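This part of the workshop introduces the protein records we will be handling. A learned vocabulary of local backbone shapes supplies the integers on the structure line. Getting from the letters to the tokens is the skill we practise here. As an example, a complete record with its sequence and its structure tokens follows.
=====
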Amino acid sequence: MDARSRLKEANRIVVKVGTSTLTHATGRLNLGRIEHLLRELADLKNAGKEIVLVSSGAIAAGLGKLGLAEKPTDIPKKQAIAAIGQGVLMHIYEKIFAEYGVTIGQVLLTKENAVRHHQYLHSRDALLALLAMGALPIINENDAVSVDEIKIGDNDNLSAVVATLIDADALILLTDIDGLYTANPSTDPSATLIPEVAEITPEVRALAGGAGSSLGTGGMATKLEAAQVAMNAGTSMVIASGSEDGNVRRILAGEPIGTVFPAKESHLKVRKSWIAFGKRLVGELVVDAGCRRALERGSSLLAAGILSVEGSFDRGSAVRVLDESGQEIARGIVNYKDEELSRILGHRTEEFQELLGTATEGEVIHRDNMVLMI
């Protein structure tokens, strides 16, 4: 079954709406666009779909409420404005959804909810309970209390984490661009829309530009990060314009809207999802071609195939595994500190005792604690 046909069968859908979709060029909320979108989501829910809305816009709504022209740079002011805007935004959502008989539930998440395994599971249970009750969860990063260390960083990645948490069939990112292009369409008239991306390669990442609008935080790079998370968790993702009414319905009808990123066939179990997308990544290991082939066959990661180590981390940390071209091939939990790895990389297991002076694990990352990302 092709990617577009699979979208027609999607039942549990996460829709992420960006700040640029929710606001006018003035920075004030676009109430007409918001109403059309919420009516569309309510109608999909009436058709039997399970819908989760991941919403940006709290800071933009707060700026509008306070009459400020631009987003401040310091965290305390951002937190205060988000606290004001969150109430404004939820009041609007509650009012419009209530007109269509939809019960909503607000959920605020931070990275901390994903990093700790028990909080990851509690977040999953809460969201599934809301869906079982027939409610429509509305999710945002908890900007009012988040700081850099615990922020997920943008609502593109947040929506992908949510899709992973609830085993969503589809993730739709509504933004200010029609999808992924071969070049920047605002500066290159020859740029063409890419209808489907089957794999996030270094070449695909090179197509991503910088951040989007001045009010938002996410650019195409964060959307590609979200796509990699979603695809490997068994969720098909679509990037599409949020300015056109009916795009969500048309995407779920299988129409060629935006850029689709098809789900990988293998669906990750909950623990492996947490390893890949919950734990904070703190380092990178570059491996040779032989090691990559071994990992693809299901082997654990051994030091003999590691070429270099980047980052500072302890045992039990989560790291990315890259091939020599820079493509991410796996994520996993390491059995060694970075300085230990630097001493044993390229060596065989039987040499570890002499190199480190202590009894050690044979595998750098055991296959049970590793997730392939290709």
Q: What stands out?
A: The chain has 15 helices and twelve strands.
